[in-house]
Design goal:
elongated; mainly alpha; 99 residues; 0% strand
Length: 99
């Protein structure tokens, strides 16, 4: 099966966004913000549809989906750590939990 570069980039981008939104959804749930959680949840569902439809037709796109997933979660966690609450929240031992 031949991979289309544009679809591969689309799968990577959509899964990156999907996982970033998933992290934001979980943050909203943890903060008990109903409207934000519901909004992030619906966006998460819409974004995941493109990737799933793309890689179910060609399993070769799964690697792009996994890569995008990692990128999205990492970027969203980095963004959340830099938020206004990140500097005011005490960490155990005075360090961040991961590098």
């Amino acid at each position: 099966m031949k991979l289309e570069p544009l679809v591969a980039v689309g799968v990577l981008a959509s899964t990156a966004l999907t996982d970033a939104v998933y992290v934001l959804f979980n943050a909203a749930v943890a903060q008990r913000r109903r409207l934000q959680a519901a909004t992030w949840s619906s966006i998460w569902y819409l974004l995941s549809a493109f990737a799933v439809i793309s890689y179910t037709h060609n399993a070769g796109y799964v690697i792009f989906a996994a890569s995008g997933s990692w990128i999205g979660a990492f970027c969203a966690m980095t963004w959340l750590r830099r938020g206004p609450d990140a500097s005011s929240t005490p960490q155990r031992g005075g360090t961040h939990p991961d590098p």
